[in-house]
Amino acid sequence: MFKDKTQLEIKGQIERITYYNEENGYTIAKVRVQGKVGLVTIVGNIVSLIPGEVLKLQGFWDNHPKYGEQFKVVSYESIMPATVKGIEKYLGSGMIKGIGPVTAKRLVSKFGIEILSIIDNDIERLNEVPGIGEKRVEMIRKAWEEQKDIRDVMIFLQGHGVSPAYAIKIYKHYGRDSVKAVSENPYRLAMDIFGIGFITADRIAEKLGIPKDSQIRIEAGILHVLNQLSDDGHVYYPYDLLITECSKILNVEEDRIPVALDAVYLARFYLAEVGIARHLTSLLTAPKQLRLINIDQAIDWVQGMLKITLSGKQIEAVKDSINSKVMVITGGPGTGKTTIINSVINIYKKMGQKVLLAAPTGRAAKRMTEATGHEAKTLHRLL
Q1: Backbone dihedral region for residue 66 (phi beyond 0: left; psi -120 to 50: alpha; all else: beta)
Q2: Which of 147, 176, 274, 332 is the most exposed, fewest CB within 10 Å of its CB?
Q3: Angle, CA 197 vertex, CA 196 and CA 199 arms, to 5°
Q4: pLDDT of residue 262
Q5: pTM of the entire structure?
Q6: What's the CA gap between 6 and 377, in Å, rounded?
Q7: Reduced to 3 states, what is the DSSP secondary structure of residue 299?
Q8: Residue 135 φ then ψ, to 5°
């Protein structure tokens, strides 16, 4: 059993690809490694692997309970194959559009070990090979450049601390503009790429030499802090407190944090809150049917029926529920919200009205049912 996770470097030629997942680049492949008997199994996130290709792999040995010894790839670097046989296998793998096994054999037969350099620097010479015309040459040029783009991006990203799995996501999102996008503003990764947060983007930015007090870092950092605060239930945050929090988390002077507003929202929460306020106003101002009921008698009745005594604020809330089209009740645990809800439900039922109870989640709906004795549903189910 292999217990040591110390990173090692091995070099080998890809013999065949056993499995490849296009979504995340997860690959299982067989590699011929010098000094090892038989083929070695490698596993990891490796994009656009080609049989015949030589890879320099960083990782560690592991022992799979079913498949045995494997080399887990942490990072890698592609090296062009150096032997005629390896080059022929590489070109004929089908990964380079326009070149199949037969064409690969002809190319290697004509140009030998120089063929890769010719494709790189003097691709028009491929016309010298029988059966290869201008259209095929153009197809090969395009496919070759695409492969090079992928490799250049992967080498750049891994050189700046990006794991192969994230490098593949970045390439899928930005394509050949990946290097430019990451170099100009690595913090955009936190907004554009699922799974990459501010901490990862900040680590990449540091490797790129972006100063800690740079404007792009502080702007991204403010969003990061607001997101963290939203996890604690804050829809927005007062300006002065936000400045202090950002300064602490980003480790920069407070005067470097941009001066802006009295309170700061993430856009989605601001739009949600403004939208809710607008809809509540619309409901409040819409015409309503008059309910002919003696409210004081109703409150006396419900207190007797539930065997409770409502406080002044609770009585005010129950009255508002009769007089208004919509009402919002807030308060912490133990402030009497459930008692108000129970009173309102029973009065409306006594009036012959249909009452529906809804909550955002199944758990909340269950708690509401238990607290009131009336069935509550999730909003989704109710709608």
Answers
A1: alpha
A2: 332
A3: 115
A4: 43
A5: 0.52
A6: 53
A7: helix
A8: -60, -45
CA–chain centroid gap for 11, Å, is 33
Say how far apart CA 184 and CA 171 lie, in whole Å: 15
With 0-12 / 13-18 / 19 or more C-beta atoms within 10 angstroms meaning exposed / middle / buried, residue 82 is exposed
Between CA 244 and CA 48 the distance in angstroms is 46
pLDDT of residue 4: 57
- 20 touches 138 (CB < 8 A): no
CA angle 208, 209, 210 (to 5 degrees): 100
What does the pLDDT look like over 321-356, one tens digit per residue? 888 888 888 888 888 888 999 999 999 988 888 899
- What value does the mean pLDDT take over residues 32-57? 85
Return the CATH architecture of domain 152-207.
Answer: Orthogonal Bundle (1.10)
User: 164-174 vs 134-159: helix axis angle to the nearest 10?
Assistant: 130
CATH 2.40.50.140 in the chain is located at 8-79
Residue 73 bridge partners (DSSP): 59
CB hemisphere CA count around 81 (13 angstroms): 25
User: CATH for 8-79?
Assistant: 2.40.50.140
Q: What is the mean pLDDT of residues 149-165?
A: 78
Look up residue 229 and give its two tokens: 């605060």
Distance CA 338, CA 349 (A): 16
Return the closest-CA partner of residue 306 out of 330, 334, 338.
338
In words, the CATH class of domain 295-382 is: alpha beta
* pLDDT the model gives residue 263: 60
- DSSP conformation class of 325: S
What DSSP state is assigned to residue 125?
A: G
Block residue for tokens 């259209």: 135
